[in-house]
């Protein structure tokens, strides 16, 4: 999720658009991966050397031209022309016009359109998953799984389209009905991050659509090709059904577009996924106009293993949670608390497991660990390792940049730090796991909760009483509270989100649909009398 502030995305090469098609020499064209035979599959997604990054029923864009790169080798893939502020203004107007048509369509019929979007994504799941792997850098199985998550939320939303609504409540007044009416908010702005460039948009888009909203998407600049490819798939479904394409609009861009969305009163809800630092700025801009925001921000997540834990579950869980997506998930485990009686054994097993991780090109089906997304992420990884050493930490595995092309770093285990060390309380979006000893339940529950974020957490134990204390009011203060499973790998059926500096927003399943709607309490008098509530007489 957009963990690197916009000003740090210098990995994206920019050029001001002047006139005509991109004025590039043929030699530059030939260096793009999209022109190489082994990447010809990119054209199955409608991608070209130069791609328009604005969609509002038609494709265009008058902003800067950016080149996106493959993190596995830092070679250029293709280019995208981003949105100008003028493009943004035009797109918002068209999206709001499209909303007036979309809102009149019954919810189950809207669900049918979302079903078709899910089917269209399913048809392209392998090629789109490969693009996620190529442009974001996550391993292929995770890239395909991310598209599957969008498909799953579409299936979920189809059923939800026949169930959303409020209750009919008993009225204290005779001849009166009390109804809770839910209506779409209107236009939902969706700002997503580089690390889940498909799934997070899917969570928001599918649910927002069946609720009757139009959507305006701004993805991360470094994954602009993914944003374009996904929008092309959705646009075809809308156009085939003779619906305005602007129902699902796209404005690729940087901080200027994100700021415009945050300040725009025409954006009725802004869903933002990214860093706590940028999320705070977004929240303040939205609140300044009394708007609504849905924030999914940082996570400094912990796994706790007690003395009775099943170590055959603890070790693979910690491994997956710490190094999956090269440590770039918002739910990545960054802290591992081990009871003092099992600490040394778990660290020994975990170190051996780290040594067996298969590293390589993320689109190789045998690989489990790929690169970091940008060169800047590599620099931040190295800075965090050095800071951990300064604060008394000992690197027992990893800690270095790998000697190979691309943005590869060694998955890293650090022991010996105090739980209160400043680096431990700093979310570093990299595969660094800090390991600690603890003595008892009270202290480790407190350590879990002492960081500013509150996204995901997990304990490993067989003690039933401890499990329910963990789930209770004095246990974990996170939005995701697990038992005997990793911190990562949430299912779409539950609400996803966290507390404190994680932002408090909820997406995906359960009653998260309510975030995308406004509620009205309606009283209907079908009698010939006019009784007042609370028995008040006004005569």
UniProtKB/TrEMBL annotation:
EC number in record: 1.2.1.3, 1.2.1.31, 1.2.1.8
Pathway(s) the chain acts in: Amine and polyamine biosynthesis; betaine biosynthesis via choline pathway; betaine from betaine aldehyde: step 1/1
Q: What superkingdom heads the lineage?
A: Eukaryota
Q: What Pfam families would the database entry show?
A: Aldedh
> Which reaction does this chain catalyze?
(E)-non-2-enal + NAD(+) + H2O = (E)-non-2-enoate + NADH + 2 H(+); octanal + NAD(+) + H2O = octanoate + NADH + 2 H(+); (E)-4-hydroxynon-2-enal + NAD(+) + H2O = (E)-4-hydroxynon-2-enoate + NADH + 2 H(+); betaine aldehyde + NAD(+) + H2O = glycine betaine + NADH + 2 H(+)
Give the source species: Catagonus wagneri
Record-linked InterPro entries: Ald_DH/histidinol_DH (IPR016161), Ald_DH_C (IPR016163), Ald_DH_CS_GLU (IPR029510), Ald_DH_N (IPR016162), Aldehyde_DH_dom (IPR015590), ALDH7A1-like (IPR044638)
One cellular component term from this protein's GO annotations in UniProt: nucleus
**Enzyme class of the recorded protein, top EC level:** oxidoreductase
Q: Which molecular function GO terms apply here? A: betaine-aldehyde dehydrogenase (NAD+) activity; identical protein binding; L-aminoadipate-semialdehyde dehydrogenase [NAD(P)+] activity
Q: Where in the cell is it found?
A: Cytoplasm, Cytosol; Mitochondrion; Nucleus
Task: Supply the name of the protein.
Answer: Alpha-aminoadipic semialdehyde dehydrogenase
How would you summarize the oligomeric state and partners of this protein?
A: Homotetramer.
């Amino acid at each position: 999720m957009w963990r690197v502030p916009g000003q740090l995305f210098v990995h994206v090469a920019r050029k001001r658009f002047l006139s005509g098609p991109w004025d590039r020499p043929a030699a530059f064209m030939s260096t793009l991966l999209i022109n190489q035979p082994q990447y010809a599959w990119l054209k199955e997604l409608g991608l070209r050397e130069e791609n328009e990054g604005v969609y509002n029923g038609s494709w265009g864009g008058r902003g800067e031209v950016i080149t996106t790169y493959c993190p596995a080798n830092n070679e250029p893939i293709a280019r995208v022309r981003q949105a100008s502020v003028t493009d943004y203004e035009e797109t918002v107007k068209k999206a709001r016009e499209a909303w007036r048509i979309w809102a009149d369509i019954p919810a189950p019929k809207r669900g049918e359109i979302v079903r078709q979007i899910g089917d269209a994504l399913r048809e392209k799941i392998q090629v789109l998953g490969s693009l996620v792997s190529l442009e974001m850098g996550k391993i292929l199985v995770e890239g395909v799984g991310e598209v599957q998550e969008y498909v799953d939320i579409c299936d979920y939303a189809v059923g939800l389209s026949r169930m959303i609504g409020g209750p009919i409540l008993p009225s204290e007044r005779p001849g009166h009905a009390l109804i809770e009416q839910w209506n779409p908010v209107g236009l939902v702005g969706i700002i997503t991050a580089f690390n889940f460039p498909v799934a997070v948009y899917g969570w928001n888009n599918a649910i927002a659509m069946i609720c009757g909203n139009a959507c305006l998407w701004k993805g991360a600049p470094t994954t602009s090709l993914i944003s374009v490819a996904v929008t092309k798939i959705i646009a075809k479904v809308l156009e085939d059904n003779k619906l305005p394409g602007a129902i699902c609009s796209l404005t690729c861009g940087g901080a200027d577009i994100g700021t415009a969305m945050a300040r725009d009163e025409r954006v009725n809800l802004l869903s933002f996924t990214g860093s706590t630092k940028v999320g705070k700025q977004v929240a303040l801009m939205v609140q300044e106009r009394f708007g609504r925001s849905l924030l999914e921000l940082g996570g400094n997540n912990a796994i706790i293993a007690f003395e009775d834990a099943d170590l055959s579950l603890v070790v693979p869980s910690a491994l997956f949670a710490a190094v999956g997506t090269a440590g770039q998930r918002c739910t990545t485990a960054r802290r591992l608390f081990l009871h003092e009686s099992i600490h040394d054994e778990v660290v020994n097993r975990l170190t051996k497991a780290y040594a067996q991780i298969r590293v390589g090109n993320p689109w190789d089906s045998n690989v489990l660990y790929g690169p970091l997304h940008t060169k800047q992420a590599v620099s931040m990884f190295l800075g965090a390792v050095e800071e951990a050493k300064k604060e008394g930490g000992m690197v027992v595995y990893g800690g270095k940049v790998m000697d190979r092309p691309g943005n590869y770093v060694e998955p890293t285990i650090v022991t010996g730090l105090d739980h209160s060390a400043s680096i431990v309380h700093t979310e570093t979006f990299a595969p660094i796991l800090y390991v600690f000893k603890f003595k008892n339940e009270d202290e480790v529950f407190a350590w879990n909760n002492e960081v500013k974020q509150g996204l995901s957490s997990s304990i490993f134990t067989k003690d039933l009483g401890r499990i329910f204390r963990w789930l209770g009011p004095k246990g974990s203060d996170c939005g995701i509270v697990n038992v005997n499973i990793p911190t990562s790998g949430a299912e779409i059926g539950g609400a996803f989100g966290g507390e404190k500096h994680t932002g408090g927003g909820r997406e995906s399943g359960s009653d998260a649909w309510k975030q995308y709607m406004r509620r009205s309490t309606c009283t209907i008098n079908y009698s010939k009398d006019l009784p007042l509530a609370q028995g008040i007489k006004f005569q």
